[in-house]
Amino acid sequence: ERDGAMQGSGGLLGILLVSAAAWAAKRPLGPSVVLVVCDSLDGRLTFYPGNQTVDLPYINFMRRYGTVFLNAYTNSPICCPSRAAMWSGLFTHLTESWNNFKGLNPDYVTWMDLLEKHGYHTQKFGKLDYTSGHHSVSNRVEAWTRDVDFLLRQEGRPMVNLTGDKKHVRVKEVDWQNTDKAVNWIKEKAINLTQPFALYLGLNLPHPYPSPSMGENFGASTFVTSPYWLEKVTYEAIKIPKWSSLSAMHPVDFYSSYTKNCTGEFTKQEVRNIRAFYYAMCAETDAMLGEVILALKDTGLLKNTIVMFTADHGELAMEHRQFYKMSMYEGSSHVPLLVMGPGIKEQQQVSNVVSLVDIYPTMLDTARISVPHNLSGYSLMPLLSANAENEASSPAPRPPWVLSEFHGCNVNSSTYMLRTGKWKYIAYSDGRSVPPQLFDLSEDPEELTNVAMKFPVVVHFLDKILRSIVNYPKVSSSVQEYNKRQFVSWKQSLGQNYSNVIANLRWHQDWLREPKKYENAIQKWL
């Protein structure tokens, strides 16, 4: 009956659609938006005291003329899952983006798709990395086999490499080329548009560079910069992180440190250099952000454009005897988030906990598009607006917590972080087989003392909140089943070539010493 009625009212339906399109065309749109997302920038570098270590003039410019978030977090501290959360507005367990190989479907409707549908001109340049099917075979297999009873180094030993001279500015050339594209687009295309635009620029920096010594599927453990950028770093301000002894480390932290090739001896100078080179790479990243800001300023578009800067996750840079991310410690999970533009409060520091899933509803809110109710995130506009009423008047008040989770490589357990007030609570696996961690960030900002045993009532309270957000034992079990299915499928696809292929992944230096031992461990797991 409904089909017949629809056919009979085809003319009316056509009129309604035309009217809706005309209304959408006349509907007042929001300002233009520019989102610059880099890779692996520790958010603590964007405010005091972290900002004393390296000169970041354009991040400082955004702080002066906009708002900086002091407690912004990734929803999953690894590239693809974190970006899947940002582009979908949904937590990782909802998108089932379990590792760098498993992200969103290519046809997933992102916030940028909705902005385009509602009249914005949209443009993307650079690194996206939020859909399934990417990254190396090694990366996938390491994630799938994390429950296997073996311990193998999967990364090269972290090291530094100084390149060029004091005039060498464009070290990460691919990022500079994408920045050039964005700048040229602003100067040649955006300036002539009659409708607002949404521009995205994705940068690889300050992610470490590849380490070819690790073989065909090598990882990225080399921090590369030039003397030009190294001069931006204040060596005296670099803190040498305190390390627990290997025997005192949390079992998951030990697994991560070992697989990241960080359990060996490191001199203080080695650690200081790794951190200095990383900060120099952050300075180069800041310069690319600056090119975009200057292009908007030179074209007169800056005053009508909201600019956002963030990262997919941070970088430990040898804190907790680790480099890279994949951890809930601040260096890995804390991201930068700065916003400036029309209607955005200037020189504001926001202490509320926020996360990358908030980008999606914020973009829709900025564009004056109704925000769906099924999102994990909340619009940041009530916190940003220079003339906003108290956030309590918002129809959907922001919860006082954020969630981050991790299910990928270099960590042998699904991990869940609840950040609220002064507390950071980290639960693992089924909530029983691996001890939790609790840190009081007001008393212990370096997260050196796990106080879970000292405050069992707090642990119980925070665990109850966590379980109300996500049934994490069930999710952990689902990930374990997924990993096994994926590995079996991959193994079968290789046939007789399986033994040769698996032996020559990133862990080849360890694997080839006792190949039968490790194959047997996998067989036992299966």
TrEMBL record:
GO CC term (a single one): extracellular region
Location(s) in or outside the cell: Lysosome; Secreted
Major site of localization recorded for this protein: other
Keyword vocabulary terms for this entry: Calcium, Glycoprotein, Hydrolase, Lysosome, Metal-binding, Secreted, Signal
EC number annotated for this UniProt entry: 3.1.6.1, 3.1.6.18
Co-factor requirement: Ca(2+)
Any one Gene Ontology molecular-function term assigned to this protein's record: metal ion binding
Domain Sulfatase N-terminal: 31-367
Catalysis: reaction(s): an aryl sulfate + H2O = a phenol + sulfate + H(+); Hydrolysis of the 2-sulfate groups of the 2-O-sulfo-D-glucuronate residues of chondroitin sulfate, heparin and heparitin sulfate
Keyword Transmembrane helix listed: no
Signal peptide span: 1-24
InterPro entries: Alkaline_phosphatase_core_sf, ARSK, GAG-degrading_sulfatase, Sulfatase_N
CDD domains assigned to the protein according to its UniProt record, in alphabetical order: ARSK
PANTHER family linked: ARYLSULFATASE K
Family, similarity comment: Belongs to the sulfatase family.
Role played: Catalyzes the hydrolysis of pseudosubstrates such as p-nitrocatechol sulfate and p-nitrophenyl sulfate. Catalyzes the hydrolysis of the 2-sulfate groups of the 2-O-sulfo-D-glucuronate residues of chondroitin sulfate, heparin and heparitin sulfate. Acts selectively on 2-sulfoglucuronate and lacks activity against 2-sulfoiduronate.
Protein name: Arylsulfatase K
Gene, per the UniProt record: Arsk
